[in-house]
Amino acid sequence: MIGQRATTPAGGFFGQFRLEKVSRPTLASQILVPAVSIVLALLAGGVIILFAGENPFTVYKAMFQGAFGSTYNVSETLVKTIPLLLTGLGVGVAFRMQLWNIGAEGQFYLGAIFATWMALYGLPGVGPWVLIPAMVAFGMIGGALWAFVPAALRAWLGVNEIITTLMLNYVAIGISEWLVHGPWKDPLGFGFPGTKEFPPAAWLPVWGTTRVHLGLAFGVVAAVILFIILQRTRWGYEIGVAGESERVARYAGMATARNIVLVLMLSGALAGLGGMSEVAGIGHKLQRDLSPGYGYTAIIVAWLGRLNPFGIALVAFLLAGLLVGGDQIQISLGLPAAIAPMLQGLILFFLLGGELLIHYRLVRRRDG
């Protein structure tokens, strides 16, 4: 009608659309969206590197060669893969049940502390066939016990596990600092904070002349067992149901409180095994700054791996390459190794944004 002004729905152009949850994401979207997210993260990182006065292609090439350019570099990447794989598996199994274990860092430290006690004081004079299995068991027990506290609070009191697991990280690191500066400090260590060196029987076997140790086998076996549990057992089915809806799991008569405790303790045990592998396979002693943040990087590993044990193993290897490559550019190009954590953060940021595209779609509102 002449003189009548056309109007648009409230909110203008964007008000004509809404987000609609997708009932079952397509396989293509689950593959393409994470891949595109990683590419966008690398592009964004390239822009930052460009502003820092460096050629992004030169930096990325140096990082790739530093991580995968030789047999030695690949072996160093595998060394970094081990703690990322074990902590990533631990975080991933908890996330499958919608339990947000942010405490893998502390559980990693407790596993290292328990394993150190066994190596130095637990079974003096025994051979590796006895001592190493004992250290494995104690490392897993240490991580599991550290996860039990937030697990019990979550299961029976409803306390948010994000806060409790995160805060316990600082307590665990503090205990480690106290031990290496105090009662366990090596009297012959020239003042450096750390315990005395483990006896050779407590050292994990290595592959040839590399530093790749038995912890890699622990991670691979753990991934296979975890996959079987999640995909082929009743308990794995209960974990999946509770992850979709805790209310539905309770309605179906599943022991959700028990499962919360067991899953978080399993999560902690795997992270503790990572700590045990690090002290027994690399440093051969408990020392200050044992972890550069493996427990936090494990969160990225688990999400990028889509909470699938084999996906987590692949992502752990790739992110380990990113860490090793970051060290390489510091040596060869004089750039800060912090570029690698920066890229990790960008990857996580774009990945979380991509999750929206996988599980939701934009549809036009219908009038009326």
Characterization of this structure:
This protein has a domain at 85-308. Helices cover 68% and strands 3% of the residues. The protein has 13 helices and 2 strands; from the N terminus they run βαααααααααααααβ. With 368 residues, the protein is mostly helical. It has helices at 27-51, 56-68, 71-95, 104-122, 128-157, 161-181, 215-232, 234-244, 246-251, 256-283, 294-304, 309-332, 339-359, and strands spanning 17-21, 360-364. The protein has a two-stranded antiparallel ribbon. The longest helix is centred in the middle third of the chain and has 30 residues, at 128-157.
- Integer average pLDDT: 88
> Can you count the helices?
13
Biggest beta sheet summary: 2 strands, antiparallel
Low-confidence stretches: 1-10
Rounded to an integer in angstroms, the radius of gyration calculated over CA atoms is 24 Å
Describe the strand arrangement of the main beta sheet, using strand numbers. Answer: 1-2
